Amino acid sequence: MHGRRAVPVSPLASALFRTEGRMSHAPQTAAKGKLGIWMCTALVVGNMIGSGVFLLPASLAQYGGASLIGWVITSLGAICLALVFARLATLLPHKAGGPYAYIHEGFGDFAGFLIAWGYWIALWAGNAALTVAGVSYLGVFFPQLNDSNFAAGATAIGLIWLVTWINSRGAQSSGRVAIVTTLIKLLPLAGVTVAGLLHLNPDFVVFNPQHKPLAEAIPATMALTLWAFLGLESASVPAGDVDQPERTIPRATVLGTLLAAALYIASTIALQGLMPAATLAASAAPFADAARSLWGEWAYYAVGLGAVISCFGALNGWCLMQGHIPAAAARDRLFPAFFRHENAAGVPIVGLLLSTLLVTILLACKYAGGDSGVQIFEFVILLATATTLLPYAFCAMALLAVMLQRHRQFRPRDWLAPLAFSGGGFVFALWTIFGSGAEVVMWGVLLLLAGLPVYLWQLRENIVKA
Predict the structure, then answer these.
(1) What start-end ranges are recorded for coiled-coil regions in this protein (predicted)?
(2) pLDDT in tens, 98-118
(3) 129, 122, 126: which is closest to 451 by C-alpha?
(4) Which one of 156, 317, 367, 376 has the largest count of C-beta atoms within 10 Å of its C-beta?
(5) Phi and psi dihedrals of 205, rounded to 5?
């Protein structure tokens, strides 16, 4: 919103986003060097709509129309969590670090450390997944990347360091890339979706083609669609770089989640109505194949290019976050002090570079081991998902914890909406943790326990300096 007047807030939004004192009605033009409403919304949408949306229609084809039920439930859970983050952003507008900062405020040092540790692992592991996916899509244009692990690995490592360089130049640099890549990625997705809805063949849409029990099919679709919503908290992480965070972060979080949910559901319907379920399930690039059937061979490559840009845009946004999380924890003396160091552009450069170094090591080990792109992608997706689910559950309860700490500020009716969407978000997070399987939970617990020696070392450092 770059006009002179702020966009009016509905009574519902005012109730959800009420903060101490009056809401500011200052212009929404972003201050110099700050992220405005459009950059933050692009960051949320760009981080959620990464590589997954280009592949999910094929994965969901076996469930047919029943997959829409899973999409709707997952979307509702994601919106509940988006409202949790939006409300937390109004209560703690200048707290940088997103989930970590909110959990630290609500539950104290130890919970804050565990979440920061796990969330940081999720960030750089997720970046590895996005890098692998981007290189896989590049294989459409450079087939040698599909035949040589060395070429694929070198390209992946080069890509992650290119994005790191962009982010090292400051929040505005990352924000501009987020806007451009989000617009570019949305155009082919929206084009194929709209055209698919206009040319939809009802005969192709089968509610449950494999006749699986709904009690089994719906949780399975929820597990598949979960990855598509990771990143809804993105606008809250670089809060210190956001213009008017008490207004910008809540609006960007909710708007970005709603836009992504609408596109996910509409695109699933469109592609299921363009191709028979068996054909869609066998497609390695469902959007590109749909574009080719609609407009010809050129469209196949155009959508493939959109997929590459989509991965690059999501990688850019997540790379911005991987430096801010350890820096926020270091400012609270829960991570080593060197994570606080910033470069001339105000970027927490140590966390950014160390995270990218860890991504590089992970990619080098997996590619050198001879794993295929799909195997590497599945491994790091598992690693990232296992360490992202817990912060979501904690944040749903952290909102109520922060409100209890400030209970004198709230009237009884002020608790109704937060109780509803915090409860909904918490149940959704628990359900997705349960539905992700024992192996995911095991990885999550092991990775969290691996951080305990670091916490003890930092505790010792704090005692010595006290």
Answers:
(1) none
(2) 788 889 999 999 999 998 898
(3) 122
(4) 317
(5) -85, 105
